[in-house]
Amino acid sequence: MTRIYVINIPSSEMRRGNIEKQLKSINLNYEFFDAIDGRKQKEHPLFSRYNEEYNEKSLGRTLSYGQLGCFASHYLLWQKCRKLNESIIILEDDALFDIEIFNEFYKESTSLSDNYECVRLFENKKRKYKADKIKNFKNFSIANFSVGHRSATGYFLTPSGAKKLLGNCDKWKVPVDIYMDQAWIHNVECLGTIPACLTNDPRFDSDIGYEKENKSLSMIFKRELFNLKQLINRTIYNIMKNERK
């Protein structure tokens, strides 16, 4: 069966216990993966991949050490997926499951590897998007989304998908969830389940540790320009993808 890895900072015992309780309730095997806590491991060797100059020019700010730790944790699991040469499910420890749908997805997951490289299991956080259902199961469907989900809370990943993600992020330019949404860069389509298998548990604040920002006019302008470029790239990618069908 598909291996499940849960990203967790060992000191976050309440989050660890909560997701452990959920997974045990549906009798699924899983492993905890010790997250890279960027706030405590500021000299982690993977952080050398971070392109700080790009962030300053494009977003008007730098990524926090917590965001770098989050990227590093997912990156290491992409490497593990490729090394194992088998599909895995990656979860963050604040995931809150729809037990019935997640359990069904898990049972079906062994049959998905040939057709779907990455399937997001959480709700799409964009306000507007188009979702075309491409495969129906009993209680959920897999859909192709026109816009990425803006989250990395949980997803199914194949070795081919992991290879693409790894092969196009020698330099880390944006947070991991935004990078995963940039299908025009790595060509991993934005697929997800309808309805979602999970969401974020509202009882837990982010473990990333976002830093407060003073949003200057310059920063606002750079972000709006960045978002416009993202929109253009996404639109072109979606048009070309539809033409290939």
Question: What's the SSE blueprint?
Answer:
Blueprint: E1 3-8, H1 13-25, E2 31-34, H2 52-58, H3 65-84, E3 88-92, E4 95-97, H4 99-108, E5 118-120, E6 131-136, E7 141-145, E8 154-157, H5 159-167, H6 176-181, H7 183-186, E9 191-194, E10 198-200, H8 217-244
Record keyword descriptors for this entry.
single chain, 245 residues, alpha/beta, Spore Coat Polysaccharide Biosynthesis Protein SpsA, Chain A, two-stranded antiparallel sheet, 10 strands, globular
Number of strands: 10
The level-1 CATH class: Alpha Beta
User: With helices defined by DSSP (H or I, 4 residues minimum), what is the helix count?
Assistant: 8
**Can you tell me the number of structural domains?**
1
Termini separation (Å)? 31 Å
State Rg. 18 Å
Name the shape in a single word: globular
Structural class: alpha/beta
Low-confidence segments, given as residue ranges, are none
Mean of residue pLDDT values:
91
- Summarize the helix and strand pattern as letters: EHEHHEEHEEEEHHHEEH
CATH architecture: Alpha-Beta Complex
CATH fold-level topology: Spore Coat Polysaccharide Biosynthesis Protein SpsA, Chain A
Spatially, the strands of the biggest sheet line up as: 2-1-3-8-5-9-7-6
Largest sheet: 8 strands, mixed
Strand content: 15-25%
Residues in helices, as a percent range: 25-40%
Domain Glycosyl transferase family: 1-180
Protein name: Epitope biosynthesis protein
Organism: Photobacterium leiognathi subsp. mandapamensis (Photobacterium mandapamensis)
InterPro entries: Glyco_trans_25
